[in-house]
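Ops channel
N.P.: pipeline sanity check, posting one input/output pair.
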């Protein structure tokens, strides 16, 4: 058989190799289904004849599935690739989906590319990490495909979350036991502003729209439970989870009078930046100021002093979301447990 390469089909190759069309397809798409020798033989013959493999678009029309999962992020791609928590979550997703030979299509909701270029219609379903912009969410729901949400809820859909309120409250209760003096909170995306600022009388974001509002309420309830009051101007808003913005907020807080003796931070990145700000102001941690974080990223235990924080299973959240999507777990919402990790920054 020596037809022109542009006319070669899966059926042509199967007849030439004296195997089924499924066997040829598996050589390209499901290599684990064939022996190494048979797969290499099939691919070598296909290369020799100029056959490039089954057409993905045609296959998706036949089966209604593409083997591609859309992962919608609540932030910019450039930001997500530098955020250790997001990286760990994506790692958990990738490990499960790759083992089942699925591909991931990452779709940020805060980039210009979000303006519906047809990506949503091509994927088999969505893992939505963090609340996307409203119009993005509406487009995804309109596709009538499987949706698993992570770190937020949509009525009628399965979600994977942690208990942010109680995790933050437990951390604050521990930190307040041996704290004498003022407390400051370094929040994360708690008001609608692109700048580091104190919240003053600004309206907080809705509790069901952001995990950090739940953490803030956990902090505030622990402070109230300790018989202390918390003025709004002692709460800082950090618009993005970056070292530079965390450092700016921490430096402002530590230069206030009276200076806070405890900084409750809503992420490890902010907390680590706060430790650097304290060092630059000749303050010792924890002797002069105690600091807590949230997430337990790898740097938290290697930094000196090591960081007291809330450990959340970021990789595990990705693993669980992927397994639910693939039917390897019960299709029900999951609250992943957390753990308070006490280290040097706030013993």
């Amino acid at each position: 058989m020596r037809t022109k390469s542009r006319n070669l089909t899966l059926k042509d190759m199967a007849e030439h190799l004296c195997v089924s069309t499924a066997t040829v397809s598996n050589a390209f798409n499901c290599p684990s289904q064939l022996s190494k020798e048979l797969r290499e033989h099939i691919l070598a013959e296909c290369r020799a004849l100029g056959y490039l493999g089954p057409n993905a678009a045609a296959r998706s029309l036949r089966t209604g599935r593409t083997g591609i999962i859309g992962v919608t992020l609540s932030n910019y791609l450039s930001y997500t690739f530098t955020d250790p928590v997001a990286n760990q979550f994506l790692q958990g997703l990738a490990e499960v989906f790759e083992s089942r030979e699925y591909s991931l299509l990452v779709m940020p909701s805060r980039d210009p590319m979000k303006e519906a270029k047809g990506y949503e219609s091509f994927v088999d379903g969505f893992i939505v990490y963090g609340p996307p912009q409203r119009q993005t969410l509406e487009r995804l729901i309109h596709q009538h495909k499987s949706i698993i949400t992570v770190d937020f809820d949509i009525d009628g859909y399965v979600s994977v979350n942690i208990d942010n309120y109680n995790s933050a409250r437990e951390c604050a209760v521990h930190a307040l036991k041996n704290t004498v003096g003022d407390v400051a909170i370094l929040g994360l995306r708690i008001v609608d502003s692109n700048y580091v600022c104190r919240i003053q009388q600004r309206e907080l974001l809705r509790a069901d729209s952001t995990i950090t509002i739940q953490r803030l309420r956990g902090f505030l309830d622990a402070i109230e439970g300790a018989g202390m009051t918390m003025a709004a101007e002692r709460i800082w808003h950090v618009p993005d989870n970056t070292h530079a913005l965390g450092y700016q907020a921490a430096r402002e807080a530590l230069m206030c009078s009276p200076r806070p003796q405890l900084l409750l931070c809503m992420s490890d990145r902010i907390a680590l930046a706060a430790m650097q700000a304290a060092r630059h102001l000749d303050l010792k941690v924890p002797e002069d100021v105690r600091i807590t974080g949230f997430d337990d990223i790898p740097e938290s235990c290697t930094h000196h002093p090591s960081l007291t924080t809330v450990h959340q299973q970021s990789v595990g959240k990705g693993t669980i979301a992927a397994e639910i999507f693939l039917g390897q777990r019960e299709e029900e919402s999951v609250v992943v447990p957390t753990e308070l990790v006490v280290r040097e920054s706030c013993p």
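N.P.: looks fine end to end. The chain is about 40% helix and 15% strand.
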